[in-house]
Write a structure and sequence with these properties.
Blueprint (H helix, E strand, L loop, with lengths): L3 E8 L1 H4 L4 H20 L3 E5 L3 E5 L2 E12 L2 E12 L2 E10 L5 H11 L8
Antiparallel strand pairs: 1-6, 2-4, 3-4, 4-5, 5-6
């Protein structure tokens, strides 16, 4: 298994249609929990931190760390979510082990220093 570095962009026009800018910060946390739920369903002994807020490219973003097992093998991950315009953007990195690997640390640095457009 190699370190995963994943960036996913969801067109959330319909979901965000009636959301104010203030609520979009809460939407980032809510979407993050939904997305990590997909990871949780494929793991045993799954644990996650509560979302914490930070800024990526000046945009509020939610971040959490998780651990769990796949076929008895320990895995660890870090996931982010932010709302940019009408897009929900998810950054995710994971690897084997119980603590972030050097490659994961580099991935999180890249995510946190990403330049994200705020328009569509």
């Amino acid at each position: 298994m190699k370190t995963l570095l994943q960036i996913t962009i969801y067109d959330a026009r319909l979901k965000l249609k009636n959301e104010s800018k203030v609520n979009r910060d809460a939407v980032a946390s809510k979407c993050l929990l939904e997305f990590v739920g997909g990871v949780e369903r494929r793991r045993t002994d799954f644990k996650k931190t509560e979302p914490e807020m930070l800024k990526i490219s000046g945009i509020p973003a939610a971040k959490l760390r998780w651990t769990g097992k796949v076929q008895g093998m320990e895995t660890v991950g870090v996931m982010y979510c932010l709302v940019s315009g009408t897009n929900v953007i998810s950054f995710h990195t994971q690897d084997v082990g119980s603590v972030p690997t050097p490659a994961m640390i580099e991935a999180t640095k890249a995510f946190e220093s990403a330049s994200v457009s705020t328009g569509n």
